[in-house]
Amino acid sequence: MPYFMSMQKLLLLILLVTMYSCLFAQNNRRANYFETFLEVNDSIDSMVVCKAKRELVAFHQGKKIKKYVISLGEEAIGKKQFEGDMRTPEGHYFINSRDTNSSYHTNLGISYPNIEDSTFAALQGLNAGGDIKIHGFPNRHIKVQEKQFLNTDWTMGCIAVSDFEIDELYKWVMANCPILILP
């Protein structure tokens, strides 16, 4: 039991440090794109997305094992509230599906909307939306267009990485992996 409690405290500390750095990050874009392999062949058991930094950080047992540069919904600033608002959600979610037969190479489903998201939208008389994923490039893209996808927010609210990176995430992300999406 003490080991479990210390692991919880360590995970909480890591999340707090990541949140702190995200809150004060500049809204900068990625300058370069390089494919690097996951250094540790361990499963990814939690992830933190910092929208302001355009980063997805993967963890194994509380240890950061890789950082991915991401693209977001076209309306990147602000929390997703309604279907069609082109924003990426913010909050606590988990990976709830996996799909290799996707219009965007491969994808991992995110459990948006959660109860808070659904309640907020319902109080406004609107649909919260759904079908939020971590995915790769559109299947019909041309290799030379990849930099265009990598240097802009182009999704309808999803989190996008390269095809190489989504293949890696698909392989290593555990079922029901928690994902915290920060502003």
Overview of this protein structure:
Strand 6, helix 3 (146-150) and strand 7 (159-160) form a beta-alpha-beta unit. It is built from four helices and eight strands, in the order H-E-E-E-E-E-H-E-H-E-H-E. It has helices at residues 2-23, 115-123, 146-150, 163-172; strands spanning 46-50, 55-60, 63-69, 91-102, 105-110, 133-135, 159-160, 178-182. The chain has a single domain, classed as Beta Barrel (L,D-transpeptidase catalytic domain-like). The protein has an eight-stranded mixed beta sheet, sandwiched between helices.
Largest sheet: 8 strands, mixed
Q: Give the low-confidence spans.
A: 23-34
| CATH fold-level name | L,D-transpeptidase catalytic domain-like
Shape: globular
Range of strand content? 25-35%
The number of distinct helices, counting runs of at least 4 residues, comes to 4
**What is the CATH homology-level superfamily?**
L,D-transpeptidase catalytic domain-like
Helix content: 25-40%
How many runs of DSSP E, i.e. beta strands? 8
| Gross CATH architecture | Beta Barrel
Rg over C-alpha atoms, rounded to the nearest angstrom: 16 Å
Q: What's the average pLDDT?
A: 84
Number of domains: 1
Strand order, largest beta sheet:
3-2-1-8-4-5-6-7
Content-based structural category: alpha+beta
Secondary-structure element string: HEEEEEHEHEHE
CATH class: Mainly Beta
Distance between the termini: 33 Å
